[in-house]
Each structure stands twice: as structure tokens, then as C-alpha cells.
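Example for tutorial group B:
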């Protein structure tokens, strides 16, 4: 089992480094799709609003980086990481993720097409990441200087937006439900 975990962790790091090389800031994720490093302030008697200013890792999306040495250090601190997250809303790409869920009572893809027709916009050709549950993540480039917030089912049922302060699970990541693929 240790060999499989080591291989999985090595693949996660390799995928994260490849994304970082392309200018996408990354963090290590656990099988639950949550940041793999716990907050260094979790035992503080009072809630502490720190977004990494303390210099320690464990601040979720605020730790995201494109620096290869820092990516390696984050993954070394979280050897159980099986995937990586890509921070949204940051330069140079200003990545916005459109998460289209598929559930028995929801067809988010059809809802997005309906919104496009109703509001007269075209859904561009883009990177599409397939989720283990059968959903899809569309990667879009947002405009510089505009902050796109996160939302869940605000546009339509099953359509979630990942913007500033959010992250997308990167392709190649292994979660408890399977692998994210392009």
C-alpha cells in the first residue's frame, strides 16, 4: 500500500509542478478535495484571520504558488496529498471555473446552454476537466481587474462558479471518488 501511496503522491506533485510551470498557482489536496495542510492556527484560543502572513503553510488557497521550490515544499509537508488545487482569479490567467454538476434531477450543461441562448453569449472552446462523478469543469479566462466571486447554484441548479478565493481540483488528481481527467 505504501508504494501505491508514494506513487500517487509523486504523480500529484508532478501534475502540480506542470500546472505551476504554466502559470497556475497550486496547493496540495487530500483525497477529500480539501487542502492537505491544516491551518497552523487551528488550536488558537481566538479565531485568527491569517492568509499566510505568518509565513507558515496551511492557509489553503492563500498558499497557492507557481514557484517550483515552494510547490515541492508544500507537497513535502503533506506527503499524503493525492491531488492539487488550482487557485482561481489570479494573474496572469484570472482562471474562472464553471462547475457543471450531473445529478439525477439536474442537467447543468443544458442549463448553461439555456443561459447562453437567453443572454446571447457563446460558450467558448476551452479546457474541460471531467470529474469522477460525471460532471465537468470549464476553465475560462476572466478579465483583469474584475473580481469574480464564488457561487453555488446561483446561476442555475448544478452550476457552481469558482472565482477569487476559490480553487479547482486539477486534472490528474486522485480523490476518494476517482481521478479528475482532461
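The residue assignment follows.
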Amino acid at each position: 500500500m505504501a508504494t501505491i501511496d508514494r506513487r500517487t503522491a509523486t504523480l500529484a506533485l508532478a501534475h502540480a509542478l506542470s500546472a505551476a510551470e504554466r502559470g497556475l498557482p497550486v496547493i496540495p489536496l487530500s483525497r477529500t478535495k480539501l487542502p492537505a495542510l491544516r491551518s497552523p492556527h487551528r488550536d488558537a484560543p481566538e479565531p485568527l484571520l491569517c492568509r499566510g502572513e505568518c509565513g507558515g503553510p496551511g492557509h489553503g488557497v492563500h498558499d497557492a504558488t507557481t514557484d517550483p521550490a515552494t510547490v515541492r515544499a508544500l507537497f513535502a509537508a503533506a506527503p499524503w496529498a493525492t491531488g492539487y488545487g488550482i487557485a482561481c482569479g489570479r494573474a496572469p490567467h484570472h482562471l474562472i471555473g464553471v462547475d457543471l454538476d450531473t445529478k439525477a434531477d439536474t442537467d447543468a450543461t443544458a442549463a448553461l446552454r439555456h443561459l447562453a441562448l437567453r443572454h446571447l453569449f457563446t460558450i467558448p472552446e476551452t479546457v474541460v476537466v471531467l470529474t469522477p462523478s460525471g460532471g465537468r469543469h470549464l476553465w475560462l479566462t476572466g478579465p483583469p481587474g474584475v473580481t469574480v466571486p464564488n457561487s453555488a447554484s446561483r446561476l442555475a441548479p448544478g452550476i457552481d462558479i469558482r472565482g477569487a478565493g476559490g480553487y479547482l481540483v486539477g486534472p490528474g488528481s486522485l480523490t476518494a471518488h476517482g481521478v479528475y481527467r482532461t
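The chain has a mean pLDDT of 92. Compare this with the pattern of hydrophobic and polar residues in the output above.
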